[in-house]
């Protein structure tokens, strides 16, 4: 068993591209769910819109990648309005239903044969749409150390990605601690009380939906750039629920929760996988118990078990305050 | 118990009949009806609330008091009727705009914002906050000085309401009575012209009740109008200038506390209900 290899793989995933994508997706959900109490079960839809919005304009229309980013942000605002206008005046559960359906619709449209020429059908889009971004990379040789290893492209995504995460987190931190953030948290507690104090709750909820959605679409940018391809089936409901897992792992309504949650999530997934794989290949784990092909499934089972234990023993997440969570019971 | 101030004086000269007109009404409602399926919860022909007075709205359980509050403040819409505040028609005006016009309510089932601190609950009430705009929120130097001023005001009100030691506690950590106090204190942060309190005294202990009464009287001294729902007749007697009685959705009597409580129709509305449940099975 090569322990150094396991450490290298695990650490690289903890700080890697996927952790960035999930951190961003969860920052968006934190705005929605953690601070405003909006149940958005369609975050994957925002990621998909972000991802397709950078790939399609560049590949199909020859538009510059930088303009495509703006298109992506514009599209995600449009998507948020589309979801919010009919539902935000209604009870919270309506948003949950509509978002989960809308995200699926986005994915189905993306993979449909009708738009195959533009969106690539179920094969998605693969191509050089990210060249403008990678041309700027000063670290083309990548990074290779015994404990950390990134390819040239990945290193560039990782560096710019974490800077972006830090920037967005900082802005979020300032905003949620402002009077504006106070209105958001108040809406999470009781909309009608906030209305009675003269605040336009609908407008605030719409702002929350848009901001969290735009951050989700930025996660989609990173997803598309890092792979230099967009696959529709990567943007299914599971993606949304993993993002929720990341958020709850860290502790909802904590500004650093998405970052730490995403790191822990990917640390665990890769660590468990690597250990199992090493165990199986070196015959420490017998073949009749776990085969090589089952490692992928079993890591998620163990992950689920771990999350269950977390919810039992630390339901408030890593950063959360147990006292605060208990208040939720509306005693 | 007779008070001598502008808010109370009107009572001496106003006709003590349901729907009577007041010398200077701040709120006027006309032909307001609200049906829930077959049930007519509210059916108010005409009512006026005198500016600068303390008016009590009383009536047995299920009389329609809370529903009437909901209608007036935009939380519910009537099947028919019109009403106006300070001469401005309120039909179809959403709750937050009603509040901005200066009519602020509290709720029978207290709506403290649990995972906000007591101080945050208070600060939320202030109007015209620069930092509440999404664009300005990210630049604290724009709103910091205003925030400090609001905090000062909140501190003064919290001291008044004996909640200042609790300012950093979550609202969920307050007792039921303290939450009632907080909700009222928070409503005052909006600087309303008219305060509508739905059972402000329910669950508040007698000592605290006394101080709450003082706060309500204080509001009148500041020239504000108070309309409140209450079941405790001693309280109603002690502070109200005027009493309006609702039963089965209608206003059946109004007048000074002494007159209204001697009114046989009112006694019947209250006691009749009890006699019915005790003796015969169904009333009218
Ligand atoms: N949303 C609703 N749907 C159906 N019926 C309702 C609704 N709200 C109120 N009612 C009915 O309307 C009538 C008036 O209720 P309301 O809550 O206004 O009474 P109230 O005078 O405030 O009573 P209490 O003193 O007990 O608070 C009751 O018969 C109640 O059952
Ligand atoms: Mg009531």
From TrEMBL, chain A:
The keyword Isomerase is assigned to this record: no
InterPro entries reported for this sequence: ABC_transp_permease, LivM-like
Alphabetized UniProt keyword annotations: Cell membrane, Membrane, Transmembrane, Transmembrane helix
GO cellular component: plasma membrane
Molecular function per GO: branched-chain amino acid transmembrane transporter activity
This protein's record includes keyword Kinase: no
Membrane spanning residue stretches: 6-29, 41-59, 65-85, 155-176, 209-226, 238-257, 264-285, 297-313
Annotated coiled-coil segments of the chain: none
Record's subcellular location: Cell membrane
Membrane topology: Multi-pass membrane protein
Pfam families with a match to the protein in the record: BPD_transp_2
Protein name (Swiss-Prot/TrEMBL): Unannotated protein
Native source organism of the sequence: freshwater metagenome
The organism's taxonomic lineage, starting at the top: unclassified sequences, metagenomes, ecological metagenomes
UniProtKB/TrEMBL annotation, chain B:
Annotated Gene3D superfamilies: P-loop containing nucleotide triphosphate hydrolases
Matching SMART domains: AAA
Gene Ontology, cellular component aspect: plasma membrane
Ranges where the ABC transporter domain occurs: 27-273
InterPro entries: AAA+_ATPase, ABC_AA/LPS_Transport, ABC_transporter-like_ATP-bd, ABC_transporter-like_CS, BCA_ABC_TP_C, P-loop_NTPase
UniProt entry keywords in alphabetical sequence: ATP-binding, Nucleotide-binding, Transport
Xref: PANTHER family: CONSERVED COMPONENT OF ABC TRANSPORTER FOR NATURAL AMINO ACIDS, CONSERVED COMPONENT OF ABC TRANSPORTER FOR NATURAL AMINO ACIDS-RELATED
Source species: freshwater metagenome
Protein name, entry field: Unannotated protein
Region named Disordered: 1-24
GO molecular function, one term: ATP hydrolysis activity
């Amino acid at each position: 068993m090569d322990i150094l290899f396991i450490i290298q793989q695990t650490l690289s995933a903890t700080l890697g591209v996927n952790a960035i994508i999930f951190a961003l997706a969860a920052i968006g959900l934190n705005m929605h769910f953690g601070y405003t109490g909006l149940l958005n079960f369609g975050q994957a839809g925002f990621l998909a819109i972000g991802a397709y919005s950078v790939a399609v304009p560049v590949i199909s229309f020859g538009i510059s990648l930088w303009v495509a980013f703006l298109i992506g942000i514009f599209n995600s605002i449009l998507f948020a309005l589309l979801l919010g206008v009919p539902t935000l005046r209604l009870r919270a559960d309506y948003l949950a239903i509509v978002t989960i359906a809308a995200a699926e619709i986005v994915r189905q449209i993306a993979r449909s044969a009708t738009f195959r020429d533009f969106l690539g059908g179920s094969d998605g889009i693969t191509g050089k749409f990210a060249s403008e971004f990678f041309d700027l990379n000063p670290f083309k040789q990548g990074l290779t150390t015994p404990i950390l290893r990134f390819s040239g492209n990945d290193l560039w995504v990782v560096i710019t990605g974490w800077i972006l995460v830090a920037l967005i987190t900082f802005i979020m931190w300032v905003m949620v601690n402002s009077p504006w953030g106070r209105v958001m948290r108040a809406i999470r507690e009781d909309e009608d009380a906030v209305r009675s104090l003269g605040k336009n709750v609908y407008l605030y909820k719409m702002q929350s939906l848009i901001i969290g959605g735009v951050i989700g679409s930025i996660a989609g940018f990173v997803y598309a750039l890092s792979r230099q391809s967009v696959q529709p089936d990567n943007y299914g409901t599971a993606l949304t629920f993993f993002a929720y897992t990341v958020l709850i792992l860290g502790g909802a309504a904590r500004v650093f929760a998405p970052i730490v949650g995403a790191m822990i999530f990917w640390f665990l997934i890769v660590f468990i996988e690597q250990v199992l794989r090493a165990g199986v290949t070196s015959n420490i784990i017998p073949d009749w118990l776990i085969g090589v092909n089952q490692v992928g499934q079993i890591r998620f089972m163990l992950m689920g078990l771990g999350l269950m234990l977390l919810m039992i023993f630390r339901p408030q997440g890593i950063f959360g305050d147990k006292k605060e969570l208990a208040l939720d019971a509306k005693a | 118990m007779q008070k001598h101030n502008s808010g109370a004086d009107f009572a001496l000269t106003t006709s003590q009949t349901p729907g009577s007109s007041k010398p200077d009404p701040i709120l006027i409602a006309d032909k307001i009806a609200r049906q829930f399926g077959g049930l007519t919860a509210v059916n108010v022909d005409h009512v006026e609330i005198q500016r600068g007075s303390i008016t009590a709205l009383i009536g047995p359980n299920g009389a329609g008091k809370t529903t009437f509050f909901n209608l007036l403040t935009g939380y519910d819409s009537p099947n028919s009727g019109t009403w106006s505040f300070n001469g401005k028609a309120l039909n179809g005006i959403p709750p937050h705009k009603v509040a901005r016009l200066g009519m602020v309510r509290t709720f029978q089932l207290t709506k403290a914002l649990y995972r906000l601190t007591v101080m945050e609950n208070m600060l939320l009430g202030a109007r015209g906050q620069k930092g509440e705009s999404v664009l300005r929120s990210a630049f604290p130097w724009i709103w910091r000085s205003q925030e400090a001023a609001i905090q000062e005001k909140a501190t003064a009100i919290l001291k008044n309401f004996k909640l200042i030691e609790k300012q950093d506690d979550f609202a969920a950590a307050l007792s039921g009575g303290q939450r009632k106090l907080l909700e009222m204190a928070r409503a005052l942060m909006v600087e309303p012209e008219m305060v509508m309190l739905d059972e402000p005294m329910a669950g508040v202990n007698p000592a605290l009740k006394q101080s709450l009464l003082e706060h309500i009287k204080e509001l009148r001294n500041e020239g504000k109008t108070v309309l409140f729902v209450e079941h405790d007749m001693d309280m109603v007697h002690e502070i109200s200038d005027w009493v309006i009685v609702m039963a089965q959705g209608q206003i059946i009597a109004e007048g000074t506390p002494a007159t209204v409580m001697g009114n046989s129709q009112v006694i019947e509305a209250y006691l009749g209900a009890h006699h019915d449940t005790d003796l015969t099975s169904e009333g009218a």
